[in-house]
Amino acid sequence: MQPKVISVNRGLPQEIPWRGTHVVTGIFKQPVSGRIPLRKLNLEGDGQADLSVHGGEFKAAYCYPIAHYEYWKEELQGRELDPAMFGENFTIDGLHEDSVHVGDRFAVGSAEVVVTQPRLPCFKLGIRFQADDIVKRFLASGRTGFYVAVSQEGEVGAGDEIKIVARDEHAVPISAILQLHVTKSYSAGDIEAAQRALQVSALPESWKEYLRTRLRQ
Predict the structure, then answer these.
(1) What are the angstrom distances between the C-alpha of 56 and each of 42, 68, 148?
(2) Positive or negative: CA dihedral 149, 152, 158, 161
(3) CA distances from 83 to 78, 163, 198 (A)
(4) What's the pLDDT tens digit per position in 162-202?
(5) First and final CA of the chain: distance in angstroms?
(6) CATH ID of 4-168, from 2.40.33.20, 1.10.357.20, 1.10.1270.20, 2.60.40.1840
(7) Under a CB-based contact definition with an 8 Å cutoff, are residues 150 and 46 in contact?
(8) pTM of this structure
(9) Of 136, 151, 179, 217, which one has the fewest beta carbons inside 10 Å?
(10) What is the per-residue pLDDT across 129-142, written as a single tens digit (0 to 9) for each?
């Protein structure tokens, strides 16, 4: 089955009451119809509240597999999950964290993207779900989705096929990058994966510095 985009989602930051205060967040997104320009820094019409940790060149768009929705419906005891519940720009089918590598390049619509990193959730996912524990559960599940940078701007829309342009030669899956973040002690396999990850040009420098620190330990 050819991977494809199930929905394109966007939203602008809004102020949400949370724990006795108000938090501005862009995690509330909705599916949109038609062809939407995908720019170097984000999907047109989309916005992020805290640009120090969201959005930007290496997080221009966030992809989340629709298959994970079934897992979460069971995990959360049948709770109905709205489209774009995880704040993703692209709800996708046919790709997942084990099969996608950092540095892989894909064509989608008239745009081209490159995979950069897994998502590390912040407390705002808890605001979306109105539950603090979802952040730890999300990370522990390994079902984090992944971010992409935009190597060629273009237009995207629901139903677009996601076509592989090039696989990164170092072949470090998103799931392995996540494992390198969460594991407390590196095995020989983890060390080898970290060393390969350091050779991937698409992996952001912040991740590389983290991996260098872990390897020195």
Answers:
(1) 7, 25, 10
(2) negative
(3) 15, 23, 35
(4) 999 999 999 999 999 999 999 999 999 999 999 999 999 99
(5) 43
(6) 2.40.33.20
(7) no
(8) 0.95
(9) 217
(10) 988 899 999 999 99
